[in-house]
Structures are given as C-alpha cells and as structure tokens.
Amino acid sequence: MKKNFISNSSSSIRMFKSDFMESLSKVKYYVPLIVYIPVIGYLFYKSFAEINMSVISFAGWFLLGLAIWTITEYILH
Hints:
mainly alpha
C-alpha cells in the first residue's frame, strides 16, 4: 500500500491570516487544564452541595451534555 507523505516539520500550519488570531490558536497543553479544572470542580460542588442533586441525576445530566457535545462537534466538523 502506498504511504502518504505529510511533513517532517515539527511546526504547525498557519490557520488564520491575522497574526492576532493566529497567536490565539496556539496554547500549551496544560492551559485548558488550569482554566477548566477549577470550573469543573466548582460546578461539581455546586450541583451536590447547593442544589442537592443526586448522583443518578448528575450522571444523567453529564451523559446528556456529553451526547450534545459529541453531536455538536460532529455537525460543526
């Protein structure tokens, strides 16, 4: 089977014409973790401590959100 040659370059391709937009498209792998893990922790606490949501209800909402996210990503891409 014939193999497709992609690139030997370690740099990523340019996605935007604007330098500003291009600078916003590159981020270290740990930045989303630093931003979103506290948000997830806060919402997890809020759902159990303040709203008194059951574990089954939480799991249901989580799975619904996961399904909606997956379908949205599929449609947008």
